[in-house]
Structure formats: C-alpha cells, structure tokens
Amino acid sequence: SGSAANSNSITGVRIVVAGDRGTGKSSLILAIAAESFPTNVPSVLPPTKLPDDMFPDRVPVTIIDTSSSLENKDELVDELKRADAVVLTYACDQTSTLYRLTTFWLPELRRLEVKVPVIVVGCKSDLADFKQVIGLEMVVPIMKQFREEIDTCIECSAYKRLRISEVFNYAQKAAIYPIAPLFNLEARTLKPRCMRALKRIFFLCDHDKDGALNDAELCGLQVKCFNDPLLPSQVIGIKGVVQQTLPEGVNENGITLAGYLFLHTVFFEQGSPETTWTILRKHGYGNDIRLRDDHLLPPIIRTTHQSVELTCEAVEFLKGIFTLFDNDGDGALNEDELDDLFSTAPERHDNFFYRHFAHL
Hints:
Elements (H helix, E strand, L loop, with lengths): L12 E7 L5 H9 L14 E3 L10 E5 L7 H9 L3 E7 L3 H17 L6 E6 L1 H7 L8 H6 L4 E6 L8 H13 L6 E2 L4 E2 L1 H14 L6 E2 L1 H12 L5 H14 L4 E2 L2 E3 H13 L3 H10 L10 H4 L15 H14 L9 H7 L10 H6 L3
Parallel strand pairs: 1-3, 1-4, 4-5, 5-6
Antiparallel strand pairs: 2-3, 7-8, 9-11, 10-11
Helix pairs in contact: 9-10
C-alpha cells in the first residue's frame, strides 16, 4: 500500500449535500466551515470552498448545499449530475427521513444515473442519543440494498461537532478513489476493465519476462508508484498473504499474475482503493480507466525527411513480449496467442491487430 497523495490530475472535488428538509444539511456544512455551531442558518447556503490543507490528499473541496423544495427540483438535479460525491442526509431523531432514503432519494439517484459515491450521513446524532430513535443497525439493510451506490455510512452532530470532518474526509476520498469503477462489491471481484489495466501493468513491471514479479521488480513498482521502497520483511509479508489464500499466486520466481490480481482484491476488501488507483494513475490511466492521451500519444516532432524508428530497448521489450505470449514456442503467434497479447488493451475489439495494421 502507499500514500494517497498521487491523485494526479484531480484539481478539486465537488461534494453535493442532499436530503429531506430539516435533516441538517446546512448546519452540517457550516459546522465544517465555521468555528462554532451556527444559530441562524439560511435555508440554502452558497457554495462553500474548503482549503486543500484540511484533507490528507491535499485536494480542495467545494461543498454544494441543495434545496428539497419541488420548485428547486431542476436545480437539484443539475447539481447532482455535476457531483463528484453525494452526501445524503437523514435526521437521527426522525425515522421518516431514514425511510425516505429508500423510497425516494436512492432510487432517484439511480433514475438520474448519478454514478458517484454516496455517503449516507445521519445528522443530529446528539438528539438520537437522547431519544434512542435511529441506530446504525437500522441503516445496514439500506447499505445492502444499495451496495453499489453507498460507499459508507456515518452519524454526526453539528451541534456537538462530532465526526463532522470525517464526513467530508470520507466523501473526498470516495470521490478521488471510487470503488465502483474498479471492483464489483457484490461478486467481490475486480471489474474487467480494471483487470485488463492491471494485467498490462504486470507485464510492464515483469522486466525479465518470466511470468512473475521478483523482489526487485516488486520493489521497483513500489518506488515508481509510492516513492517508498519495500523492506525485505514487507516483501516476505506480501508473499505470505498471497500464498496463504492462493498458493498458485507465488512461485519460485516471485508473485504470479494471479497473485498480483489477488493482492488488489485484498486492497479493496481492506478498504484501500487508493492503492490500486495510485498504481493505475502512475501508469497513465485516467479516472475512466483509459490511458490518458498525454500518455498514449506522446508528441513526435519530425520533418518530412526524417523517419521514426524503435530504440534498441523498445525492440528488446517487444521481443520479450512476443516470447512471453508464444506459448507453444513455435516462433509465431497464432490467433489465440495474438488475442491474449492484446487482451490488456482497454478498448479491445475483435480483429484488433488486423484493424490497426491492415494498411501496412
């Protein structure tokens, strides 16, 4: 794992706070922005900007308050569609506001196709402690029903200033490192596009092309992505985690592709999507898990009388890739081997090779 500071091109996070009237949306926002509990709270606040030094990832946050009235529905919809994360509030002392999450708010987000992380926040927890109305155990069924949408659930109190910063820390982290694009929580497996990208990164890091990451290759990946070398004891620990659950994930040469992919499922199981995201971004992937244009298409400036040729290092790399995928060792790539070779291409389609090189 490593630091979450590698958010690369993300320059800001837009968090939209929504929920029923009277659930404490504006008080929640004022509690993070002001030093004391507000006494005169306006019905809807203007956009509130928080400085980047308030967050571990050092990415500035803009919080958008919303109105629950019908006459402002179009504005609410517009804000939800522009959100990087949604904080969905209910009042801990009003059971009806919790039920409204399942009868209106969460289905509405699905209908609008708002596919960003949702943080369910129980406001006014100080009142619930007194009245014993709603506990987090009542929220668990909702989280199971809307597993793909809800990132986490938390209770807080603006009045007592309890867990206010955690609400927006969770929301910011969920926006920068969303789980849904990479990992299927229901099946507990990596999604296909993520798996293809990680497979490509594995081959790039496997410098000796023996089908496994040895200690040096593993440390090289760690340094490239997190600028922090692994200690020998950490390497042993990583291999032990893999081997204990997936024996074929480690062989005499190091961690195999299966073991490497298994490690990433462990990161998600442990609630550390930032590790996988950092590795993807350091290898040129954007938030849509596609190779960024600046990475995929580096500028090549040449005159009409100049030609472009591969370096010796590039030729050797391509030879290694060819040998790695020539499973039968016959010096040629058959259709299955060629398909396997291009299986890491995120936009892979049938006849990928022929479609791109037919003009040669």
